[in-house]
Request: fold
Amino acid sequence: MAINIGPPQAEVRRAQGFALSFNQRRYLAAALLLLPVILLRLFTSFYPFAQTILLAFQEYNPAFPPREYVGLQNFYKLSTDMVVTSSVEFTLIFVFGSTLFQVVLGILVASLLNAKFRLRNLARTINLIPWAIPMVVAAVGWRWLFDGNYGMIPDLLSRIGIEYDWLIDPTGARIAVLIVSIWKSTPFVAVTLLAGLQGVPEELYEAAKVDGANALQSFWRITIPLIMPLMVTIGMYMLVWQLAVFDLPFTMTAGGPGFATSVLAYKIYQEITTLNYGYASAISVVMFGIVGAIGALGLIVFRRVQLSL
Amino acid sequence: MRAFFRQRGGSIANYVGFVVFAFVVLFPFYWIVMSSFTPRFELFQVPPRYWPANPTLENYPNMIESIPFWEYYANSLIFAGGSTIVSVFASAMAGYALARLKFPGSNAVFFGLILSIALPQVALLVPMYEIFNTFGLNRTYHGLIILMSSLITPFTVWIMVSFVNQIPSEIEEAGYIDGANMFQVITRIVLPAMRPAIATMLIINFIISWNELLYPLVFASRNTKTLSVGLVSLGRASMGVSRPWDLMSALSVLMVIPVIILVIFGQRAIVSGLTRGAVK
Reply:
C-alpha cells in the first residue's frame, strides 16, 4: 500500500506518526468484525469446494489405498451409471416441480395471510408450522400417511373407489415426495411473498376499483406484475436451495422404490457411505454444474422480468 | 388486498380459504399425534383406525427406553443452542461491517457470502470429513457447531445487512460527535439498535438447527447425536418388519413441541425476519 502512495501522502502519513486515520480504523474494524464469518465460510465452504473439484479427478477410496489422479474416469463412469442419470432426472423434476407449485400456491396463501379478517394472525401462525417442524418429522409422518396398509391417504381414497399404493409405484412415490416438499416449503414462500404484497400501495387497488376493475382483474393486472420480481427471486432461491434437499428422500423413501426417488444429494450420500470418495466428488461436480446452470437461467429470467415492467 | 376481498362479497372467501388451508396444513399432525396415543396393535390394523379404541401413553416411555432419548435431547439443545449463538453474533458483526463500514471489496464479500448459499452441503462432505479428522473435530460438539453455524451464516448476514441499512446512521454520528470511539459506538449504540434483528434470528436459527439432519448424521457419534438422528435410527432399527410407528410418532411429537412453542410466541418476529430478506 505505502509503496504506491506518492510523496505528499507519504509525508502526511509520517507527520501523523502511528495514529491511524479514521478510514484506516474503519477498515481495521471491518476486518475484525468480518473475521469470524469469513473464517467459518473459508473453512467449511470455499476450501472444501475447491477440494471437491480436485477429488472429482481422483480414484479415492480410503478402504483401497492408492489414491491417484485418473483424469475424467469418474465422469465416464457416472455418465453410464443408471442411478446417476435417474437421479439427475428426478432431481430436476423435484426441484422445478416443487418450486412451481410452491410459488403458485405461495401467492394464494400469501393473499390469505394478507387479507384483513379476524383469523389472520392465527393463519400466519398455522402457516409457519410446516416450515418450522423438522423435515425428518414431516417425512416420517407423511410416509405413514401414504402407507399402503395402514395409511390414511390410501384408506380415504379406497373409500371413494381408488385403490392405489403410492410408495410401491415409482411414479406414485415421486408424486408423494413432491407433495411433501410442497406441503413443507410453500409456507416459507408464502411468508416472503407476503412481504411483497404488503409493499403494494393500497391506492392502486382503490384506483382500479374506481375504474371498474373486478377483484380478479386487479389481482392479475396489479398484484402479479408488481410482485413478479420477488416471485422470480424467491423461485430462484427455492430452485437452488432444493437441489440440496437430502433429508426428505433419505427419511421418507430411502430413494425407493428402486432408485425412483433418489436425488443427486442422496446418491452422493450413498457413495460417501460406501467410501467412494472420488466418485462422490465427481457427482458433486455435476451438482455444482446444475446449480450454476440454474443460476444463469435465473439471471436471464430476472432481466426479462425487470425489462417488461 | 382488502379491496380485493371486499369486492368478492365480504370476507366469507377468507374464512373458506382459511378452513381449507388450516385443514391441509394440520391434518398430518392429527395423524401423528393420534398415532402417538394409540397402542401398537391398533396402529397395525387394516383398515386404519381414525381414533384409538384404547388410548394409551405407553408409547412415550417405550420410545424413551429404546433410544438414549434424554442424551439425544440434551445434544440437540447443545447443538442447536450453540449454532444459534455463534451464527447470530458472528453474523451481526459481519452484517454491521458490510452495511456500514464500506471498504473496497465489501460488495464482493457480501455477494461471495450470498453465492455460497448455493453450494450444497452434501457435496462438501468428503473434504469436510478429512479436514475434521485432521483437526480432531469429528464427533465433537464444537465441530458440529462450527459446521451448522457456518451453514446458516450467509442467510443471517443477509438479514442483518438489510436491518442495519434501515437504522438511521445519524445515531452513530451523534455518538462520535459526543466523543465516543468506534468500539463504544458499536457496543453502546449499534448493538442495542440491532436487538430486534438479533432476537428474530436467534429464534429462526434455533429452529433451523434443531431440525438439521445431515451434519449430526455424518459427523456425530453416539455422544453427540441429536434427536433427528434418533428418529432416523428408530426407523432403521426394525426395517425388516414394519417400522415402529408407535415409537416414531411419540418421538415426532416431542421433537415438534419446542418449535411449535417458538412459532406460537415468536410468530411476529419470525415473519418479520423471513420477510426482511425478501424486501431487501
